[in-house]
Amino acid sequence: MDADEALARALQEEEVAAARQQQPQPGTPDAVKAALLSLIQNSLAQALSVEDAELQARARALAPLEQLRHEARAAADLNALLLLGEQQAAGGGGSGVLGLQDFLVQGLLRWFKRDFFSWVGGWGVRVDQPACELCGCPTSGIGMVQPTAAEARDGAGRVEAYRCNVCQQVTRFPRYARPAKLLDTRRGRCGEWAHTFLLVLRAAGLDARHITDNADHVWCEYYSAALGRWVHVDACEEAWDTPLLYEGGWGKSLAHVFGSSRHGVTDVTRRYVVQPQSLPSRRVQVPEAWLAATLARLSNPLRAALDTSTRREVAMRDAAEALQLMSLEDGGSTAAAAASLPGRQSGAEAWRSARGEAGDAGLPQLFTSAGRITGGACRASDEHRGGQPGQQACRAFDGSSSSKWLDFGGGGAGGTAWLEYRLLPGQEALVLSHYDVMAADDCPERDPADWILECLGFRPVLGAAPGAAAAAGGQSVRLVADECSRENAEAVRLLSSAGT
Q1: Known catalytic membership, residue 190
Q2: Which of 195, 210, 217, 263 is catalytic?
Q3: Which has the closest alpha carbon to 453: 462, 441, 443, 444?
Q4: Active-site residue, 132 included
Q5: pLDDT digit string (tens) for 383-411?
Q6: N vs C: which end of the chain shows fewer Cβ within 10 Å?
């Protein structure tokens, strides 16, 4: 960190501290402004807290970055070879091809959620309360307690206390705000998850943001060079590029969403709302001019500390993002896609329901079963890249009913399309015993009429199957496939025909 950047951050911290000393009367316009300002400043403080070089080095030492980069490079190279050749032959530029960064982030998501961080909530506990530290039994909340001196030094401004229902031991849950401490504890709720995952993204060399909203949730974004835009990523949900998850799946109504980074604060609300044109009616509590001036006042010192080249690059990204956000409009297809997104997955069911985030959509039992093939690469006859994310070829294999593969090119009477899954070099060939097929429930006229499953380059293993039995919108069916040769089955392809 150079002297200019250190000075800019010092000035920023002084401004945050001064603002927190002001205590306007609750319910007044000044109080509303102060609450929103505090929300933004806290997010910015968390974003700046992960910029320490030693802290990032420690995070890099904990993450299996070498392995994840190797896997990401193999997936990116294979996808580029499979997709770019066809796009170039068709005159396309390949702008929808994911890059190394995107596959790396997806790998980091899986590792962080499944192997590194844990959600606070003990086994068998119906609400989100930690298990007893002494015996592991369920606990009951007894309120907030004062942090100890050690807890306060690690940023715990509040501590939740829980009494064991069996041994009466009191378990403390400090809400730590220092990312260094979170690398030790590796547990928490959405605040701790987003803060620590932001550190991991930055440690991996990615430009990343801390995202906060007005509905009590936080997550991250990273900048994808391949896609040329900022991409939503939520470690709690292991969610990648599904920005409408919170309104469409969780049932939230968002009025303000802000992205904070070492480059400043950006209003990214339009990316996260199903009906952007309704935003003016939601954002009446504070004047837009005041909000714009506030974001500029917080961002300008950080921008001023950047070198000329970086400042120019950030300004170009800002301009491109502004155009992207303004291009988002209300639409029936967008609303339908958002409505199919799942409710919140992290946290106990009763806790999610109490917060109004459980949603209506869930994964069918077939899609939650173990044994799906993973780790490969996919390509397709084409994929829809317009509108909202979640319609790429890779979405067909993610095991989620809230996303889909869409190929408009194969639609219409007599149209055909194909979808292929290929194992990476070095992966063991597979025996395909069965597969699950689900058609989206938004536009029945797009559903496949029939399909054929092939082991690529070898004999077909399944004949045509009637779409009426398996392609009803929102319904999943399991079909049994003939055995593919273990030595030869390195790819499978699904050939689909459109209805009449």
Answers
A1: yes
A2: 217
A3: 462
A4: no
A5: 665 444 456 676 676 655 656 777 765 55
A6: C
